Amino acid sequence: MNKKSMLAYKEDRILTTQQLKKLSEHKYQCNNASLLDPWLQPWWNCLVSKTPLWLAPNLITIVGLIVNVVTTLILVGYSPGGITPPPRWTCLLCAFGLFVYQSLDSIDGKQARRTNTSSPLGELFDHGCDSISTVFIALSACISCQLGHYPNWLFFQCFCAIGLFYCAHWQTYVSGTLRFGKIDVTEAQLTIIGIHLISTVFGPEFWLTKIFGNLELWSSISLMTIICGIWSLSYISSVILAGGVGKNGSTVAGTSVLSPSIPLTLVILPAFIIAKKSPENIFSEHASLYIIAFGLVAAKVTNKLVIAHMTKAEMEYLDWSLLGPGLLFLNQYFNCVVPEIWLLWFTLIWATQDLMRYCAQVCLEICAHLHIDLFTIPYPPRTAVTQGTSTNTNSASISSSSDKNGATHHRRASRQTNRKH
């Protein structure tokens, strides 16, 4: 265990000089087989063409995240346990917020290439925001379906989404390439938008309609999650177990391909045990608070996995964000000497500040190393200054032929570089 991580609050820096050097050399690699991405490309290309050239890609990303989080919190405010039917307009608001987030998340990479400001920081920032949004997107879908009536399924749905997102980056850490399947993020997001729209039209109670015997309509969503989850996990497992790109089939950092399972287990297993063993029914009574608190802990761990991949460094198992879950676990062991709701609020507050502090410090260190700003970019774009307006047109055409994260662009650039050398 690296003492630097555990003493992060006493250290001036998080990333080492070697990690920053590796980060500078990092090249984004992606394989996208999404069924719906090609159909949405015209909309994304149109949207980015209307985006001002002075607007920084990271600013686009963070605005989308804020919209998504705020709209979800409004829904949570009306139905914190997922039992009380929220007003229909809150479901519509969530559908709108998710659509905005998806659209902005899909054009930030295009904007970066359009303004010639692509950098490893942009990739890291994008994945970091995605790790947070995953928590709120999953929670909003569960509330819209009124899954608070079935706490076990609510837990399964939310932590399944969190776990699958982590596993996607786990296989990236092993193989060096981020892979999107035929049914993946875009398809899931559009499905959830559809769920919110159905709740808007028919009301959230619609999902409690019985269809076959005692089966209710929401069970179709859970069945879909199980099928898609098994499909995704089987593919991810095959990539991981096939061996990594490192020496002797190891990860990009030369570590065991199974090592990332430990941090994920340290989040999900305590979350499950605490929820099941709670004498105060802490999860059932405070479902949204519980999901957000543990979701932010998972987001911190996922961010560290992404950084480990991009810097080709060993991933650390323990983290300060696990303090809250650890206290909840110990409190139950000693027969709850402290009210669990107090510790749950502490977990949320601690995880929030820990995640924000960590992300802010990492971003500032990378900005200083790469000599760039986080939320501002040079204007006019460097391409416009050095090569004229035609370069911007060419850049836009490249982005239109690539996936939403720009994978095709990077693969082409890599091949061209190889030819030159």
UniProtKB/TrEMBL annotation:
Biased composition (Low complexity): 389-402
Gene Ontology MF terms: diacylglycerol cholinephosphotransferase activity; ethanolaminephosphotransferase activity
E.C. numbers: 2.7.8.2
Highest taxon listed in the record's lineage: Eukaryota
Topology of this chain in the membrane: Multi-pass membrane protein
Cell compartment(s), UniProt: Membrane
Stretches for region Disordered: 386-421
Predominant location: membrane
Any Pfam family hit: CDP-OH_P_transf
TM stretches of this protein: 59-80, 86-104, 153-171, 191-209, 221-245, 257-275, 287-310, 330-351
Top enzyme class: transferase
Coiled coil: none
PROSITE patterns, per the entry: CDP_ALCOHOL_P_TRANSF
Gene Ontology annotations of biological process type: phosphatidylethanolamine biosynthetic process
Keywords, in A-Z order: Lipid biosynthesis, Lipid metabolism, Membrane, Phospholipid biosynthesis, Phospholipid metabolism, Transferase, Transmembrane, Transmembrane helix
Stretches with biased composition (Basic residues): 407-421
Keyword Transmembrane helix: yes
Keyword Glycosyltransferase among record annotations: no
Involved pathway(s): Phospholipid metabolism; phosphatidylcholine biosynthesis; phosphatidylcholine from phosphocholine: step 2/2
Cellular component, GO annotation: endoplasmic reticulum membrane; Golgi apparatus
Family the UniProt entry places it in: Belongs to the CDP-alcohol phosphatidyltransferase class-I family.
PANTHER family, sorted: BB IN A BOXCAR, ISOFORM C (PTHR10414:SF37), ETHANOLAMINEPHOSPHOTRANSFERASE (PTHR10414)
Name of protein: diacylglycerol cholinephosphotransferase
Species for this entry: Glossina fuscipes
